[in-house]
Amino acid sequence: MDAGATINAVRDQTETERDRLGSDKVLIAATDATLETEVVLTTAATRESGLADALGQWAAEADSDVATQFEGAAEAAAERADRIDADAGDPDGFIDHLETVSGTARRVGAGLVAAPLVADRFYLQVVSFFINEADEQRADTFREIRREASALDDGETALGHLSESERETAAAAATEAVGAAYDDYAETLEAMGLDPKPVC
After folding, report:
1. Greatest CA span in the chain, whole angstroms?
2. CA 2, CA 188: separation in Å to the nearest integer?
3. For 151, left (φ over 0), alpha (ψ -120 to 50), or beta?
């Protein structure tokens, strides 16, 4: 599989989890059911700050071509956190998972493929939240943040630096990381007495 096919394989493998991570329950789980502007902003800033920290550490530890992609993605996440303009809180389950990932190929999958796929779903609901709050300025800000955070350019470039077997390792790690984000979401909702599965 080339880089593009690797990303498509991850998308296919994680379709159900990503669909559920894009539901209107995702902010209920992420904010512990405190759907208030400051809490939503803190949750978003926490995700970007945690991602920036993980990617920055990986950039410093990488001794390969992908260090550039880690560094660029870390700087972009830190810049997004600054634009959100809220204090970060404790890391969520997805960021906690990233901190356990080792090995360059696995880190490419988790940090440069899974993280954008998860961000796309999360920010979809953040945009919706601010639309519902009639806060068009913040809705526009988060539309732009969603577009940037969900971009897979760094992931595709980094995958291109890996061998085919390393891309398979990266794909498995990306699938696992999306699964970790979903598990955190589902367990949080279940603890609240809510069903993470969509009601048909």
Report:
1. 49
2. 36
3. beta
Q: For residue 87, give every residue at least 6 positions away whose Cβ sits within 8 Å of its Cβ, in sequence order, or none.
A: 42, 45
- Name the residue ranges covered by the structural domains of the chain: 3-186
Radius of gyration, CA atoms only, the chain:
16
The model carries a pTM of 0.94
Q: How far apart are CA 164 and CA 112, in angstroms?
A: 17
Q: In terms of CATH architecture, what is 3-186?
A: Up-down Bundle (1.20)
Residue 23, amino acid: S
Name the DSSP letter for residue 25: T
Helices (H), the chain: 3-13, 15-21, 26-30, 37-61, 67-84, 93-98, 104-107, 115-132, 136-149, 153-160, 164-191
Tens-digit pLDDT profile for residues 14-54: 999 999 999 989 999 999 889 999 999 999 999 999 999 99
